[in-house]
## 1
Amino acid sequence: MTNKPDKILIIDDDYDILELLEYNLNKEGYITETANSGIKALEIVKNFIPDIIIVDIMMPGMDGVETCRKLREIPELSTSHIVFLTARAEEYSEIAAFDSGGDDYIIKPIKPRALISRLSAISRKKKEKVIKDENIFKIGKLEINRTSYTVSIDGNIVVLPKKEFELLHFLAANPSKVYTRDDLLHNIWGTDVYVLARTVDVHVRKIREKIGEGFIKTVKGVGYKLELDD
């Protein structure tokens, strides 16, 4: 596990919030950059590849949702964790945030200590012993072996049919990334076969029955993501 401090990019048009977050995060040892607009953020990430991005939704010009979409188009940011920090508490705003590629959604007003605790948890998960090679994923007590098409929990083999295995393997390839049902249908079943979105829900339920409830999380109104079993 690396001891290198995480780099965090803070995007908000409110200078007071930028200053507050930058001060508190620097005090905790994080390396920070700030941007007061989505355009500025896209310029900064050319040379500053953040581990975590904190972005507000309500910004003039390019809002946070559009900023997130453009950030997700940058290959170097594929593993960056994007956290929305916003005063918008409506469900449709939260859904739009996750649809655009966000990983987390926190409602203002800001409580610096609670936010830092949340970011620390994100950092720990990113630095967990997640072993990846072309064929094997080890995430906590879960191991997925692409070569043998086997899944094990604490060394105990769990038998999954092919589609269930492929679905679990796909989610494990990008822990904490939210996928819509359409994403999963396209990547697992392809475009040549007509499959109902409910098929994804059924397969997820069956996988949970076999490996436990803690790994695959439901993001309400959006889809699914895989996380460590806490």
Note: The domain at 131-226 is CATH 1.10.10.10 (Arc Repressor Mutant, subunit A).
## 2
Amino acid sequence: MENRILHSIRNLTIGYGDKLLCDGISFDICEGDCLMLCGANGSGKTTLLKSLAGLSGQQVCLPEDIVMIPARIPKVAGFTLREFVRISCFSRSDMSGRLSPVMEAALGNAIDALDMSHLADRDISTLSDGEFQKAGLVSALVRKASVILLDEPTAFLDAENRISVLKTLREICDRKGMAVIFSTHDLHDGLKVCTKVLAFGADGIFRCSSDSISSMNDTVSTIFSSSRSAAAIPQDLF
């Protein structure tokens, strides 16, 4: 049985100012989807994520359904991980900035679910980049978003943290039934965890793969302008 569709994107046009990046963007976001978004620099990855989050362009999804975790959030000293998550949930707090007992319980459950209890009271400035990325995921779990958007979550991470963050994304999809869309240039690692591929092709066409291995590899290959580059994609990643 196919997973329930959370959002259907149909004939979306994205761009900024007078510059058109891509039109005719159509795909479904389903429960449990872990979607890798790829394409060349400037092709429209970040713009698409912002459009889905309602931060630019036409509104295509309900804002309360989606949480976007931007790239390179500053790790400001003086806040513990738990406090950072509370602040990120300010829209759900009361006039005094306090979360309800239900939200506080959800915060604790989310920290436990991502195995971050030992870091909950650490200053965020002392966390590794990989640990801090997971703190952003804790916030998304607390807010009970059906879709989490991440703009290059593995950028600047070392190999161990890169794999750890990507595995966590897939686990969230499998265990929580949420959907994740993450943009990345780490194609080899991303293909190991994603369920489908979204790609801005070198020919200007946006494509969504099926969940088959061959379809995902074929869709990734469209982002390259030369067949030699496309041939560099390993066929035995799965």
Note: The mean pLDDT is 87.
